[in-house]
Amino acid sequence: MAEEKPISSTTKRSYWRWSKTDFFPETSFQTLSSYKTALSQTCPRLSDRLLARSSSTDELVTLQKVSENPMQKCLTWWDLIWLSFGSVVGSGIFVITGQEAHNNAGPAIVLSYAISGLSALLSVFCYTEFAAEIPVAGGSFSYLRVELGDFVAFIAAGNILLEALVGAAGLGRSWSSYFASMIKNDSDFLRIKVDSLPVGFNLLDPLAVVVLLVANGIAMSGTKRTSWLNWITSLVSGAVIVFVIVFGFIHAKTSNLEPFFPYGVEGVFRAAAVVYWSYTGFDMVANMAEETKKPSRDIPIGLVGSMSGITVVYCLMALALTMMVKYTEIDVNAAYSVVFEQIGMNWAKYLVSICALKGMTTSLLVGSLGQARYTTQIARAHMIPPFFALIHPKTGTPVYATLLVTLISAIVALFSSLDVLSSVLSFSTLFIFMLIAVALLVRRYYVKDVTPKNDLVKFLMCLFITIGSSIGVSALWNSNERGWLGYTAAGLLWFFGTLGMAFLSKQRVPKVWGVPLVPWLPSLSIVMNLFLIGSLGLTAILRFIICSAVMIVYYLLVGLHATYDVAHQNELSA
Q1: Dihedral sign, Cα of residue 477, residue 479, residue 480, residue 486
Q2: Which parts of the sequence belong to the Cationic amino acid transporter C-terminal domain (predicted)?
């Protein structure tokens, strides 16, 4: 009971407060003079924090005190399965399938979903091991901070926030497209065109903004309430998915599958990289670990079970779509509602549109839960102002973090088109999943002050060879090199790098649930994620580099000094 006294005293403070100390309590930001002093020490501070690692205890105990009030442990494995279903299904499958089938893959979009599904499932294995052993709200941010250090975790944190903002904005725009297609056969019907703005940003979408504000408002009211609402609406979405698959195959024509590879194998992989968006959301289950009653049991069931089924469902839905109508005639914005109109089932068009809207609304609800909890843990670590880590004493939810994500995503949704948003989101997601696989290998093969130095050097050499060869495969593919020599050399390097790790002694054994076939499955996840990243094209890579550069500038000016102060303050108090 002695540990509860400080918490109870802080909860007497009003939740609704806005002082400078709440945003920047660190020593470096107390005065202009102290900030100038901190900036002058940027290099030694960067050296101190660059590879500094957190611990499971810090993430599970110390950082949670920043929130002042606890999150409520109210979720079971049943909730997690439906949260995963509600978050994943209804977002990408209704949003991106038509666009990629029409523009990149044709009927082979089913293979794109299978490839992305395999890659996602490998990432699910990695997430599950971490989530079962470190059940915190930060998800991948916390896992990377524990295993790869502060700086890598910050880059991941920036991309996590980018993913949250872009994902919510993309769903808001897609919701608007489907709603417009129900009123008029024009998905841009409710948007406002501004000719003075560049293409891709010139169709303003006020309806998307309204949808985001409403969905996030519901999510702020309580976790269990949102979970219950998600469960009800997911049942309806499931019924519609069965309808789409059954009636899709009833009205299918095998002639629509010809040619199966209209854009070649390259198009299949380009589409696979983008439709990966369809699988984003499974990390929401790992992200809800702090509010799960028995995370060691419930999270493996929720993650692995739900994602295996979702992969099969996606492949069937994609195949049904491309067999119902020629890929060249698929509507890129509201594919499933328009396709039923094209085959003469006008009533089905409205049913699919209504349920697609319901599915996307559910994705927004669950996404809001997860995005806010990412933001909360990042704020607990002081990488953004700890003000956003505060948990409301009545709802048990991070209201300020939710508002932050909501307002920024609403602004992005107002201006940005769907194709711009999807490529940015896929890059961020794939990058994070690749880092999680790397972190899992580090967790298994390196324990500070335990692993012999020679073993550490051998492990790092094998890891760099594995990552380097994976980048090489992606680079060869994007250079349009199709000769066997380069791929054979890169493949052999990947194989021997992974084999070298397999011969090393593992320094840690999972206590609860572990990824099988380590290091082979995490290594395969690395090469698949990097390959899909390369398939996104130069534009997406340039956007990612620009966003990362902005994040690094922020880190050097703010995040570095805040985390340095907190780390050394904790050392002094210890």
Answers
A1: negative
A2: 513-562
- Written as one string, the DSSP assignment of 70-123 is PPP--B-HHHHHHHHHHHHTTTHHHHTHHHHIIIIIGGGHHHHHHHHHHHHHHH
- Residues of the chain short of pLDDT 50, as ranges, are 1-11, 572, 574
Which structural domain, as residue segments, surrounds residue 169? 73-437
CATH number at residue 179: 1.20.1740.10
Q: How many independent structural domains does the chain possess?
A: 1
Q: Give residue 110's pLDDT.
A: 95
At 458, list the tokens. Answer: 């051998």
Would you state the structure tokens that stand for residue 409, as one six-digit string? 């995503």
The Cα–Cα gap between 280 and 468 comes to: 26
| Residue 256 falls inside a structural domain | yes
Task: Using the CB atoms, write b or e for 386-418: b if 16+ within 10 Å.
Answer: bbbbbbbeebbbbbbbbbbbbeebbebbbbbbb
Residue 266 to residue 439: CA distance in whole angstroms: 30
> Is residue 427 within 8 Å of residue 536, measured between CB atoms?
yes
CA within 13 Å, CB half, 84 = 28
**Whole-Å CA distances, 536 to 419, 458, 478, 515:** 12, 33, 9, 28
pLDDT of amino acid 143: 92
Quote the tokens at residue 228: 């219950």
Question: Does 511 map to a domain?
Answer: no
CB–CB of 391/71 below 8 Å? yes
In this prediction, residue 233 carries a pLDDT of: 83
425: in domain: yes
